Amino acid sequence: MDDRALLLARYRELVLDQLPRRARAEGWVVTADHCFGRIVLDHAVGGRWYDVLDRRRSPAFAQLDDAQLHTAVGLAERIAAEGDPLLRRLDAQSLQWRGKHAKSPGRR
């Protein structure tokens, strides 16, 4: 497997399985895989991911260039290491890019 294929596999493992499972078990601010995808993709591209990637082409993460994919996987790894406090900050920024308010503590 080449580096890109390994990174794509790691992204899927973290964002679609590991992070949501852990978030549900530990009561993190978001728990759904699509929310983790939104947060990680937004930060990988520096704004709303669908302003940069084609939302009709699935999966969106496969459209990331190599640098963006490295950023996305690195960020997902940081979320796995740091947990809910980091996730709350990243989610708040992602929601701000969408003109929405951050979730209040205790609300999902």
Structural class: mainly alpha
Q: How do the SSEs run, as a string of H and E?
A: HHHH
**N-end to C-end Cα span:** 37 Å
Q: Number of helical segments?
A: 4
Largest sheet: none
* Radius of gyration, taken over Cα atoms and rounded to an integer in Å: 13 Å
**DSSP strand content:** under 5%
- How many distinct beta strands? 0
Which range best describes the helical content: under 10%, 10-25%, 25-40%, 40-55%, 55-70% or over 70%?
55-70%
Low-confidence stretches: none
How are the secondary structure elements laid out?
Elements: H1 3-26, H2 33-45, H3 66-82, H4 84-97
Written description of the protein model:
The protein has 4 helices and no strands. The longest helix has 24 residues, at 3-26. By secondary structure, the chain is mostly helical. Helix 1 (3-26) runs parallel beside helix 3, helix 2 (33-45) packs across helix 3 and helix 2 packs across helix 4 (84-97). It starts with a helix and ends in an 11-residue tail after the last helix. It is 63% helix and 0% strand.
What's this, in brief?
The protein has helices at residues 3-26, 33-45, 66-82, 84-97.
Structural features:
mainly alpha, single chain, 108 residues
